[in-house]
Amino acid sequence: MNYWILVILILFLIGYSLLSMAFVPLIDFKYHDKYLDKDLDYGPKKPSWLPEKGFFIDLHTHTTYSDGILTPKQLVLWHISNGYDGMVVTDHNTMEAVEKCKKHAQDLDPDFLVIPGVEFTSLKTHLNIIGNKTLMRVPSKIWTRKKVIKEAIDHAHKEGAVVQFNHKDWYFHKKYMSKEWYLEHKIDGFEIYNGFGFVDEEGLDFIKEHKSERTMFASAGTDVHDPAKHYRMYTNVLTQDRTVDGVIKALKEGKTEVYSNIKQEKKEERPEKGKLIKNPRKQKIIKRWKWLNWLGYDLFWYGKIKKIIAFYASYSIITIALAILL
Fold this sequence. Notes:
This protein has two domains: 3-30 and 280-325, no CATH class; 37-267, Metal-dependent hydrolases (TIM Barrel). By secondary structure, the chain is an alpha/beta fold. It has helices at residues 3-30, 72-81, 98-108, 146-158, 179-184, 202-209, 244-252, 262-267, 280-288, 290-300, 305-325; strands spanning 56-58, 86-88, 113-115, 117-121, 126-130, 162-165, 189-194, 217-221, 234-237, 256-259. Helices cover 40% and strands 13% of the residues.
């Protein structure tokens, strides 16, 4: 067997996979598709499966200041239309949209609560920092050291903020640090339901099992990038103090209830469906680099898993055959 051929083909596959996975988020950050404001103003339409009364907050959101396609105004408008009482703005590694969301909330509904936040983001971990005043050190996008993650948690706590671990099943490598590691470093909560369809009900058990060691909250968030594609998730914050300080206090005390109904959501067609205006420049780039987008989109967004498995299996068989024959 010609091992050098095998090595070259394996290295090519690794390089191709990494480039394609980087391609999708890069163009999503730079070239946003969009909706018209009127297409997001149809509420309030609170789901029938939610309790009639509650203080419902979305603890995980994104705007065009990271990789979301809703402007700050549209993000507020969409949440009001879907019966939320407030939201945390958690763009990736930036807080630029927070003040803009606050301003639009004052114009659209002064009772709608906007809570500052940020999603501390790298391939190794995604943490929502909720209620922080300043931005912590931006992590390495590729492989953040544990020391930097601990610094981010400590920074948040010094500012009176809370930290939640996001969407357990998103991580490609499946070797994210354990819940025990985060507990040891004073994590405040775990995201149980995520709008991409990620569910971590084991997190509920973990919170209950370790309540004598640390009080932690359960979280639900839409992680909304494109509202037509995401499931609605609701966190009922159990507090009478409907201010930022009141919400943070309740989270520290573990006073939340989480609501999700993916089965029902799959049956309902979202009002935004079919109204997305695609960015022509983005489409031109995708067409030009479709060989990267094909694999990157399916990998990054967990698209057609069977198709991906078939691709890697076929490539492996061909690679081994070439190495033997040549």
